[in-house]
């Protein structure tokens, strides 16, 4: 695991050990936090001068390697003075809630609402947990791997379009590109970049 320039002031290896956490095998300095300890760890980091920069949710349902749980919430924690950065990863099963970090950092307000809206993760203790990006009448959560994509081709300028089946294949790594314009080859692939033909009369 990389812990941000070992031997310098940005190395967080000692901090992870001090907090009693387990280092995650990630490119960025990341620690795995049990759900029940999240707020405790966040408070300890705030006391050390850290602030919350971002919160994202991840769905590993289609990930090729086995993961501890289907979902993960990842908090990006940063120290504005010494520039140390630490990601806190919390693994969650389907329907499992996690403590909100709003009582620790007010910045969690809209960040957690976005994860709630797009992945359906419930944050306990959030003062106003409701949708923020999608319409109120939209059923489901768009960033889940099993969320159904629309079936109408999307036409853009200059004849470029997105074909739903090709788009799904591209998201799952089964296709070289996501659009009907051309797309790039994946590593190790070769071939002619020939754009598919738009259906006669335009998108159906």
Automatic annotation (TrEMBL):
Keywords: Cell membrane, Membrane, NAD, Quinone, Translocase, Transport. SUPFAM superfamilies: Nqo5-like. It catalyses: a quinone + NADH + 5 H(+)(in) = a quinol + NAD(+) + 4 H(+)(out). One of its GO terms (cellular component) is plasma membrane. Its EC number is 7.1.1.-. It is found in: Cell membrane. It comes from the Bacteria. It is a peripheral membrane protein. Gene3D superfamilies: NADH:ubiquinone oxidoreductase, 30kDa subunit (3.30.460.80). Residues 32-151 form the NADH:ubiquinone oxidoreductase 30kDa subunit domain. Pfam families: Complex1_30kDa. One of its GO terms (molecular function) is NADH dehydrogenase (ubiquinone) activity. Belongs to the complex I 30 kDa subunit family. NDH-1 is composed of 15 different subunits. Subunits NuoB, C, D, E, F, and G constitute the peripheral sector of the complex. NDH-1 shuttles electrons from NADH, via FMN and iron-sulfur (Fe-S) centers, to quinones in the respiratory chain. The immediate electron acceptor for the enzyme in this species is believed to be a menaquinone. Couples the redox reaction to proton translocation (for every two electrons transferred, four hydrogen ions are translocated across the cytoplasmic membrane), and thus conserves the redox energy in a proton gradient. This is NADH-quinone oxidoreductase subunit C. It comes from Deinococcus metallilatus.
